[in-house]
Amino acid sequence: MTISYNWLCDYLPVKPTPEELSVILTAIGLEVESLERFESVKGSLEGLVIGEVLSVEQHPNADKLRLTKVDIGNGEPLSIVCGAPNVAAGQKVVVAPIGATIYPSSGEPLTMKKAKIRGEESFGMICAEDEIGLGASHEGILVLDPSLQPGTTARELFKPVQDWVYEIGLTPNHMDAMSHMGVARDVCAWLNNNENTAVYQVRRPGIHAATKAAQPLNIGVEIKNTEACPRYCGQSITGVKVGPSPAWIQHRLQAIGVRPINNIVDITNYVLHETGQPLHAFDADQIRGGKVIIQNLPAGTPFLSLDGKERKLDAGDLMICDGENNPMCIAGVFGGLNSGVKTDTSNIFLESAYFSATGIRKTSVRHGLRTDAAVRFEKGLDIGLAPFALERAVALINELAHGAPASDVADVYPAPAAQKHIDITYAYINKLSGHTYAPEKVKNILCSLGFTVHSENDTELRAMPPLHKPDINIPADIVEEIMRIDGLDNIPIPEFVRMVPSRQAQPDKERVKEKVADYLASNGFSEIFTNSITNSQYYKHLDEDTLVKMLNSLTSDLDVMRPSMLETGLERIAYNLNRRSEDLLFFEFGKTYRKEEVGQYPETAHLSLYLTGQKLPENWMHKSQPVDFYYLKSFIGNILQLLALPAAQMTAANIHGLQPAFEVSVNGKTVAVAGGVDPRKLKEFDIKQAVWYADFYWEEILKQLQTKDSFYEEIPRFPAVRRDLALVLDKNVTFAAVETAARSVKTSLLQHINLFDVFESEKLGAGKKSYAVSLTFQDKQKTLTDQETDALMNKLVKAFESQLQAEIRK
Length: 810
Fold this sequence. Notes:
By secondary structure, the chain is α+β, with helices and mostly antiparallel strands. Helix content is 25%, strand content 27%. It is built from 19 helices and 42 strands. The chain has a 7-stranded mixed sheet, with helices on both faces. Strand 4 and strand 5 form a beta hairpin. The longest helix is centred in the C-terminal third of the chain and has 19 residues, at 786-804. It starts with a strand and ends with a strand.
């Protein structure tokens, strides 16, 4: 959030320096992320003076140049060469003498130096308005009031605004500080706690009473959705003259990054950033039926918004409508094109309302409209602020746009907000904060922030949070406010640390689990939690003595602790298939159990994946593709890569319940098994579609992990080298065998092996096929030479020939 120093100081009873204020803001939790200087005129006309042109002569060597003598009030007149067609003796002008820097409206700054122009010396420059940033005109020099005295500084004459702008990193619980008055309230609370000389309060802006219009313009207000709009205030104003805002409002808005538009819109923006209450001005002549209705419209209703786009409304969008139910504004988010203030608008209806934070957030995100008003509504506002902000804006419109109030304030507030009561003991404050606060200090801080102390005794008090702090709900919130205003730096560091430091085991098991779970969830998997107690009938193939049996089973179907993750997962798949949910990606972190010796019941941790159905939902752009082994394999590889494990090897295996079945090995250790669920096993669960399954031995995975915090390493600076081979092999040779043969050549330079083509033809010979494989080599310390790569390739070729009886296709 952006705050102007000059603007903020209007509401402070004292004026700290910008640096002092920066320290105070950071101390009370409104962390200052940057402090930058703002100038309404770049350079603030520093070094420029008012001069009088004493004489003008034709330049002897240039038709369009003049030789001038200019008095700048410090003695001998300056000789200046000037090319302006309107320069004349007796004029009062702006002069940039030698050493002064000018900042043009466009272009780079320029510092004046002694110059020789067409053979004549020039000791400065007579300036046009665009050359010093005062405008865009370059038709001639800027001619000033003849009564001005030479030597007067241009800064003194034009009074450019200088300000300091704070960028505050506002946390979500400080919605009460999303305005200049809100920040001023916290600063005053800090001053009251740290200055013992006075009681400081926010200086509220004075509001003069405006004379009412001769002709009334009454516009009624009806709220049909009081849950989404608990309070709505509005007032009619007639005789408005729409035009540019005065310079002081424009400069303040520009300082905080808001573009001035016209006096009416600028006033609503000014009051928004002053008080924190959003306002909206409607063209009153466009409100049909003489009534404003706050309601929801049917889904699909078209609405032409202020940016000229037609938007289709959702049934959840709260709308401001006229008496004929025509939408005029998306409540709290964005105005309409037809109902907004235009240059010829003379009558307006000014809105100041409170809308539900949840509804505004949903509508804002749904339509992609992140306006200043929406941001404040979605954070939560002071429901009691609406009438004051409306009164403040009406007074400014009366003063700056000549508008006169033409109706009483319509304040529809069907269910006034109940003030909360929070009981808190001084002992709890001291315990939670780690600091002993005197009761008087506690009450002083709370009252400075707007709390009301309802009752108190020696040990506790009952506090009522103000409406501008809707985030205060429990005693801990009050403790936070006390600590914040008193200063977190005042919390003493104990002499003794009353805890035992512990070393965090690496790798962090929970962190690894969350990392994998996040990856799977982001790729469409749903996490399941199945019962560890299951049916012993699933495990007739196992030795009964290895099963962990329940001594007092509740049912005959739940009589053992599961020795395998597969069956309980298949139960969940069958459950979902029976309810027409056919495309399933599940994962589960769980344990299996077995009985060994007497009293020994080891538990083994697992991560299991279950895939069935189609890869993608049915769509005209994509053909239906069922999940398959290669789809499962991609997730296995990605999980291992995510955990920075070395490349895995997959070899065929004989595993009960899986057909086909494979073991996944890393560094010679089996870390997982995978494959398709055997049709006979599927039949047990009445599953009629293929299911693919992977079971990671989680404890073995953790053993393989690095013991440092980071799973990352620097990307090698040296290029990789790729070589391709075409191997003629027997048809029964798998690619896994090719990988195994390649890995048998002990080298760290072989980074990757990939199969990119399989070719079968009688031309190769009976029972033969061709694998086209790519081999990627990389040295992290240097660039590989052709000789080194050729040597590696020769070793690999020999391994393929000796182990697989491969022929190399030339």
